[in-house]
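User: I'm putting together a small comparison set for a docking exercise, and I want a reference complex before I start. The sequence is below, and the ligand is magnesium ion. Could you produce the 3D structure with the ligand included, as structure tokens?
Assistant: Of course. I'll restate your input first, then give the structure tokens for the complex.
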Amino acid sequence: MEAAVVDAGSKILKAGLAIPDQAPSLIIPTQMKRMLEDQDGFSADNSMSEDVTVDPVVRGCVKDWDAMEDLLHHVLYTGLEWEVGNEGQILFTEPLCTPKAVREQLVQLLFETFNVSGFYASEQAVLSLYAVGRISGCTVDIGHGKIDIAAVLEGAVQHIASRRFEVGGSDLTKLLAQELGKSNPMVNLGISDAEKLKEQFACCAEDEVAYDKMLRTSETEEHTLPDGQVIRIGREKYTVGEALFQPSILGLEAHGIVEQLVRSVATVSSENQKQLLENTVLCGGTTSMTGFESRFQKEASLCSSAIRPCLVKPPEYMPENLELYSAWVGGAILAKVVFPQNQHVTKADYDETGPSIVHRKCF
Ligand SMILES: Nc1ncnc2c1ncn2[C@@H]1O[C@H](COP(=O)(O)OP(=O)(O)OP(=O)(O)O)[C@@H](O)[C@H]1O
Ligand SMILES: [Mg+2]
């Protein structure tokens, strides 16, 4: 049986058996609903269910382990059709700077609760580069909960040249909701409707000048929300995209995304800087925003540094919209190497050393 590969993001969980060159077979929300239980421990009927949502993964990191266990149970036994008593091997993706305790808890959960036969974990940045056929380069991963800017040389993350920001698509959704609230005071807009509007309409202006011009126009379009309310959207859709290039819009004192990338990489030798920046990969759902890639390229071409970022084109044989699940695809590629070559954590390793074995075997 092929190993299972799981990329549990803050909003979307991607999972599937390790068949590279394919999109993951399971793409589901990570968020769960907590059901009320009656006194006998049975779930109350649906009409009684408490509408409380739980996010097992927050800003890329597992925060609620009970919810994570339930989610993985569903993913592995229902989604990927694992059989109880005949569990397979599993590879997990991890964001930059995953705390050691989180890695240990994950490996413990998988061996002790799920009885997996082998485990491996690898950083999302390294995997996203594998997906485009590189072992060195930079990744700019803008997901739902975080932005990871990473420099990778020969398959190893260069931590001094990498940065993590606790900002992501969820903050852009809040920004859009806030802006639309100001321009449509009579509309009652929930966060999930705002997120759908963001995914459909948010975009990036060509450059700062075009954005400033956009701010002065008063063109708007009407859209009907699922509950029938009508909302007018105009320049707000550009403000959301602009926030990635001008973080002050979000109230942050940080440089725009291209400047951040160049500054992160500036800490390594100029020879390495060239190899890194000239192999830049955009990934994460937020980078699929209309106009993001061309704005990124425009800013890169205007960049004052001697070495400018250049984007890598995904190979043609890769699935469409690779940026949405490039970490998963890279995980599927790596799984085809680490498990057959026995580089993974085996059950015997785990039993002998305990959860800390993960730091020795997965790096
Ligand atoms: N077309 C789009 N325009 C803008 N945002 C989008 C678009 N498509 C998806 N997104 C956003 O991308 C985010 C999801 O991306 P992704 O699946 O990479 O995140 P994740 O892996 O769940 O989170 P993280 O890696 O931060 O833990 C959401 O915030 C979603 O709203
Ligand atoms: Mg992600």
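Residues 9, 143, 284 surround magnesium ion (ligand 2) (CB under 6 Å). The chain has three domains: 4-124+325-361, 131-167+256-302, 169-249.
User: Thanks, that's exactly what I needed.
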